[in-house]
Amino acid sequence: MEAAASASDMFDAIVMAEERFHGEGYQEGYAEGSHVGVIEGRRYGALHGAKIGSEIGYYLGFALTWQRLLHRSAEEKPSKKIKALESLIGMIQKYPYEDPTYDKLHEDLEKIRGKFKQVCSLLNIQSDFRINPERSALTF
Asked: I want to staple 96 with a disulfide (CB 3.0 to 4.6 A). Which of 3, 18, 81, 102 is the partner?
């Protein structure tokens, strides 16, 4: 009877070892995947944030330059162009750079893009902003 119990215990140990190794492997894989996911997510977030920052910086530089150029032309009253530029500058200055958890972040970015296109239309300029991953390429 002891031999049968011993064989049964050995069989149970083999079955339980498979389940134990499966559980340990799962836990190790989950921990490693979580770690790699955090690193990959951080890298993606930094890259995406840099692209958005570059785009918004381009819009702000564009708007400030044209605002100064139009003010130099010394018109008697603020034109529609200047008002649109000031609106774009105001939208950019209110953009929440420091809060990535802001729930309307992408919605506000789309509004800025729309206002930029409106300004370009008023100035009769083609609105073409592209980021080339190999090198910085801003085109008009």
From this structure: 102
- Locate tokens 């239309």: which residue? 121
User: How big is the CA angle at 87 (ends 120 and 100), to the nearest 5 degrees?
Assistant: 100
List, for residues 78-96, the tens digit of each pLDDT value.
688 889 999 999 999 999 8
Please answer whether residues 112 and 92 qualify as being in contact, where contact means their C-beta atoms are separated by less than 8 angstroms.
yes
Q: Residue 3: pLDDT band by 50, 70, 90 thresholds?
A: low
Q: CA distances (Å), 99 to each of 11, 86, 95, 104, in order?
A: 58, 24, 9, 11
pTM of the model: 0.68
Give backbone dihedrals phi and psi of 101, rounded to 5 degrees, phi first: -95, 0
- CA 112 – CA 89 distance, rounded (Å): 9
